[in-house]
Records
---
Amino acid sequence: MRFTDIFIHRPVLSTVVSLLILLIGARAAMEMEIRQYPQLESTTVTVSTAYPGASSDLIKGFITVPLQQAIAEASGIDYLTSTSSQGVSTIQAKMELNYDANDALAEIQAKVASQRNVLPAEAQDPVITSTTGDSTALMYISFYSTELQVPQITDYLTRVVQPKLQALPGVGKARILGRNFALRVWLNPERLAAVDMTPTEVAAKLRANNYQAAVGKTRGKFTEISLTSDTDIADPEAFRNLVVKE
């Protein structure tokens, strides 16, 4: 006798079994968790290194290549992309899906730190950031003013607007694409040659004579006074009158 003959000769049993299977299936269907879009986490770690004044070829050979080789040894990397431009090296490590973002950031930081003594001394320390999810900007907001200049608008956005935007729920990062305060110095090659100086030496003199110093404070028997010193240069005329070589 075959297995199916039992249900043929016993219709009540077959009906009970069918109803039991139907009830179990209905309950499972109601309690089953359905996700139309599964939970996926995609992490991108970006390493940016500034080397002011260096060409793109110099950036690629002395910064991008050694850092990229070290970062490639980290675990969980899907693929790497890099860009070497004038004065800046940018390396992006795309991690595998659902790879822990904290582990990826910590391991890449260790790999980058191991190459710091290989990088040029004039290069700035690499800046490492981690983003989870789509890194494409969701919204661009423009600001303008009829009274403030572009650097002043950027300064206001940095101090007031950006912190408020980043504090909003769901906002990962708010970037400012404006121009910051900066000073451009045009050098006269003939005068440099006359005083036997190089642009690097001029830049070193500017940094040495333009800094903010914490003087401290002085105490008396009944008083305590904080001391301040105006050691930085705030206007172009002061830079123009600065003595770089005697």
---
Amino acid sequence: MADMVGKALRVLSLLGGYPEGVSLSELARAAGYPVSTTHRLLSSLQSEGFARNDPVSKRYSLGLRLFELGQSVSQARGFAGVALPVMQKLSAETGEPTLLAVLDGHNQVYVHSVQGSQRLQIRGEPGARGPLHCTSMGKCLVAFAANREELVASLELPALGPRTITGREAFAAEIAAVRERGFAIADEEHEEGIRAVGVPIRTPDGTAIAALSTAAPAYRLTVAQLAEFVPALRAAARELAALLPR
């Protein structure tokens, strides 16, 4: 057992050296293990969220479970991350909270949130998971994902708020609209009384590496008022695209 744990940790450490992902055979050679052993180790790591396999390229990379654990350490040590100054500037401009999330399988994982100047704020706890189909950031992550078509076809669409899109065709149309206009609105879709507007943070090839949003209580901002934040969100997203690791 100890030997297998050691091998799994070695594979995990090696994955950290391939930010763009690595093939099974290449990783097996680097680890010095048979392909079958490496595949078994990766399957175990993947089942627990420590590794992920890209559905398009079939390459393996580190999973967000490591990020979730790391958040506990970073928050305890007061580590803010490179994104926080940009997010703080955006919240100062809008007066509303700014949230950042990344895609992990069929969920989004909150990375950071910054509070605005208003008394009542919407929070996204770092490391917490959320749905994709009914949040502004989730829609952006789906619309600009490498495996967009697979997500649109396979995501579960439970009704979580009074205006959640639960029909497959309607959801596909919504994602197409998000992709065309470059931002997403969630109008009481995830939770009653909450509205949000989000934009993708994209690589040069257009793939989303994260998403950024501004959220507020529905009584405070209309959908039209939220949409007025899109230029500021896009400017922040462009800045973050140059700062965030890929």
